[in-house]
UniProtKB/TrEMBL annotation:
The lineage of its organism: Archaea, Methanobacteriati, Methanobacteriota, Stenosarchaea group, Halobacteria. It holds the Pfam family DUF7978. The keyword Membrane applies. Residues 11-198 form the DUF7978 domain. The chain crosses the membrane at residues 22-42, 107-129, 141-161, 173-198. This is Transporter permease.
Amino acid sequence: MSSPASGGASATGAGSDLGRSAVVGAAAGAISYVLGYLVVYVTQSGRVEEGLSGINFFADLFGGDTISVWRGVGWVFYNAHFVDVEVPSLIDAAQSVNFISQSDGGFTYLSVVPPLLLIVAGVAIARAAGATTPVDGAQSGALAVAGYLPLAVIGAFLFRYAVGDGASVAPTLVTAVLLAGLVYPAVFGAVGGAAAGATAE
């Protein structure tokens, strides 16, 4: 029979493990987001710059703000999560655009980048948590949300480009939060964590 002291120590240890897992999850999720953006930037910044050149020419000609390449890359990064970018129209309502799906297929592979990075993050989180079963691993891996969600929300606003009269070009906020920020890290982080738990020795 365990004493109250040992029971308290056990509860404290469990709480400590949970807190450590949450910290690791937040760090791994944040790193996955940043790495995903960097992969898109390194591989697509030239293409994005070329695509924006015509728009920026007229924006500069008429004294408007040009669209930064890093912002355009952000749109493509969210497209890789199947989050559309809202583009205002002069004659109609805003249009939802996915530059990846509307491309010639040259960079559709980018849609694989966020899941792969999040699966790796899930493995790392589960390993750090010492998960020994798929269920425990999945629960640990899903903690990637703690780091991925805040950056997904910040990015949805950071990559916004104001056009005028309150209009803007930006990732669709609802899907940026729910799909990119919640579903992606929860699902793929859990997949990686479950795999780590299933193969734990």
